[in-house]
Amino acid sequence: MPPESAGRLESGTFSSGLTIPDFAACLHMGMRPVALVQGYCVMSWGWFGTGGLYARYQGSGLSTYRCPHGYYAMGPDHRTWGQNTEQTWATQAWATGFNTAYHRMVEEAAEAGAHGVIGVVDTSRHLLEGGIREFHMYGTAVVVEGRQPPAQIWTCYLAGERLAKLMEAGFFPVSVSASMASVLVQAVCATEMLLHGSWDTYGMVNTTDEITQVADAEMQACRMARDRVRSTLGGDRLHGASIEAGWKEVGAGLMQRDCVLRGSRVRHVSDPGPIEPPRPVVVLRG
After folding, report:
1. I need a surface site. Which of 106, 148, 193, 228 has the fewest CB within 10 A?
2. CATH number corresponding to 3-268
3. What is the pLDDT of residues 12-25, one digit of tens each?
């Protein structure tokens, strides 16, 4: 562990990344903040690295798109076919960076004697024009008063009232869960024309047509990310799921669609108690 982190964790004070309302809710639930913990990882992104140009064509083919113009000649730059391909190398690299940052955050929490980490925030962004990607994860390590340390530190994106309501409903956090899927779009002629707002004289491509290949890439990336997260849950559930997606142009007629799905993995531990009926409040004015 870096000396700076060790010194911070060994000090007599505590740090927290919670807002004031979340901090108050944390204390109300019997959770005592002990430290702000973090994990960090930097990955060389394969697209620009050694073997990246080869690796991008070694993914899993998802769908193929044919030219709609038949035998008409469209010029030397005419693309007669297109394909959506899963970039497995990007998925694997993202998982390595995410998991490394996560485990380093959990290691800091263990050094602080924590039972869990709440209010987790994770970010991932490209550095140095995309050739490097950083993964940063942090959260507030807490101790549950009156409880023995668990066999494994639990983590969740939730904090404050949202976490309290989850526990009142009979669920308890297990860990944060996330997955990324990347689809490479090699545009067919119709896709490229529509993306540039143009049309052709043969009437096969109109400016009001749906760009099917691009829509498919969005759905394919989200579906793969969802299926990967679902495969890790077992009998647990995903709470507070969110999707982060974005496009990136990586070459002439080549685009990349990345989709990240994340949420808190929770486990049902008890049935919720009865909910008290609301009490009407009447304000009397003199």
Report:
1. 148
2. 3.30.110.70
3. 556 777 888 888 88
